[in-house]
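Journal club side-thread
Mid-discussion, someone asked how the predicted structure for our own chain would compare to the paper's figures. Pasting it here so we can look after the session.
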Amino acid sequence: MHGPGAGSSGWLLVALCAATGAYCLLRMRSGVEEQRRTAGGEALMGFGMAAMAVPAAVLAPPRWAWAVYAAVFGAAALRALWAARSGTHHLHHLVGAFAMVYMAAMTARGTHAGIPVLTGVLLLYFTAYVLWTGTRLVPVAAGGPAGGPARGPTGGPGAPGWGDRLELARACRLSMGIGMLAMLLTL
């Protein structure tokens, strides 16, 4: 984030998060409504992470900008909390949005020393998430997870559309998890 050591690594984080956000925007063209909604939330997270990771030597936003980040991601956390009643997979979005609010609040206060226990819990969560997501990217037997033929977005035979490819969505989530870890390490 805007710590003193953010140089070329900060720009790499900006590029990773912005590229992930852009891909998530493209995933919003999916034919599956739930995937579109999820991709929209992930695009917001990717672009928000990219904006927050811009090195302070290039752009030091005014203090009020951090309150705007906190408000935007607070609203995203409320939306994820509301969506979590239909499925637990939304809880990850809730934790991610909460982490963004937390980092924005710490930066707005002018301190990069967050609450050590909370920072530690978030670091543990995102480390476990990155490891878990990474293992899910390991290829399985040819023909898909069940060994059967590939299915298209409508359930029929054929290759899924590029916006509906599960492995690309997982890679997107993995890169955002890695980015979140990098940002939390700067607190």
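Post-session note: Confidence is low (pLDDT under 50) at residues 142-155.
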